[in-house]
Design brief:
Blueprint (H helix, E strand, L loop, with lengths): L1 E6 L2 E5 L10 E6 L3 E4 L7 H11 L6 E3 L5 H4 L2 H8 L2 E4 L4 H5 L2 H10 L17 E3 L5 E3 L4 E6 L8 E5 L4 E3 L6 E3 L2 E3 L8 H14 L3 E4 L3 E4 L3 H18 L3 H11 L1 H9 L4 H19 L2
Parallel strand pairs: 4-5, 5-6, 6-7, 11-14
Antiparallel strand pairs: 1-2, 2-3, 3-4, 8-9, 9-10, 10-11, 12-13, 14-15
Helix pairs in contact: 7-8, 7-10
Bound molecules: zinc ion (ZN).
């Protein structure tokens, strides 16, 4: 587990899921009120708690969840229950936070490898707060604005730390490593909503982007870049003769993808996500 203070009182924690480095980041916000954005999976929540202790955060007010996929929100219950914190999520994610049984079952059916994330804990109904587009949560000295950014998942939220112009896009702006960004688009992927969400994030004009996968960067042209890459892949999916042709066109022909995977040659999990992403784009393009 590594902790990086990426900005005043904002810490990026490498949760080291399944021992893999630089795959999932969780963010600790140590202001008048304390928050975690993206708890990460249940299986690595012990590392987030250890990071909180190391930073000296003993109470937690909020756990912000971008979406309930196990690598993002799976640890929400485990973390929030320990501190009595509120969990903020989308209306459509609420029932899964309160009772994660069906989500756990569906995740294992989607991929047996989901076991690596651990089984989520349920959260008492009264501590689950619905976040809607434009809602603002105060941490005392700074404010977090909720942005609804569907596409990767219909119930996807992003969070904008207004005071620092720092965006926490979860999976809705792709995955980024060392400034190389690619889309993450498992089925059921909604292409049109995803495009709209990225444009919406562009118009918020962030100065920094704090990715879940992985780390914080200057926003620079990252949102433009992920949109361009998506459109390129959509073109490849449209012209491919089969799913396998599409996969090999990206894997062997797309510079951005090849650079990204080179940086992640250490990660089994990343390879798995890449394949699911190809499936989502391909189905979205074929079924439209
Ligand atoms: Zn993810």
């Amino acid at each position: 587990m590594k902790i990086n203070e990426v900005f005043d009182n904002v810490y990026c924690v490498d949760v080291m899921v399944a021992g893999e480095e630089r795959v999932i980041s969780s963010y600790i916000l140590d202001f008048e009120r304390k928050a975690v954005i993206e708890p990460g999976p249940q299986s690595s929540i012990g590392n987030v708690i250890e990071a909180l202790e190391e930073i000296g955060v003993r109470e937690l007010d909020y756990v912000f969840v971008t979406h309930v996929h196990l690598d993002h929100g799976g640890g929400a219950g485990g973390l929030a229950n320990r501190y009595g914190a509120k969990v903020v999520c989308h209306e459509r994610g609420r029932k899964h936070v309160i009772n994660p049984k069906r989500l756990w079952k569906a995740s294992l059916e989607f991929s047996p490898k989901s076991k690596v994330y651990g089984k989520p804990e349920s959260v008492e109904e009264g501590r689950v707060v619905i976040g809607k587009d434009g809602d603002v949560f105060s941490l005392g000295d700074v404010e977090i604005e909720v942005m609804e950014t569907p596409g990767h998942a219909p119930h996807h939220l992003s969070f904008f730390l207004r005071d620092f112009r720092m965006l926490f896009p979860g999976d809705s702006a792709g995955m980024c490593i060392d400034g190389v960004v690619i889309p993450t688009t498992p089925p059921p992927f909604d292409l049109e909503l995803w495009r709209e969400s990225v444009r919406k994030m562009m118009s918020a004009d962030p100065q920094y982007i704090a990715y879940t996968h992985f780390g914080m960067y200057d926003a620079d042209r990252l949102l433009e870049s992920v949109l361009e890459t998506l459109e390129r892949w959509v073109g490849l999916a449209e012209s491919a003769g089969s799913f396998d042709d599409f996969v090999s066109a990206v894997e062997k022909g797309d510079e951005q993808f090849m650079r990204f995977m080179e940086l992640y040659s250490h990660s089994e999990i990343m390879r798995e996500w890449a394949i699911h992403g190809f499936r989502g784009i391909y189905e979205a393009v074929r079924n439209k």
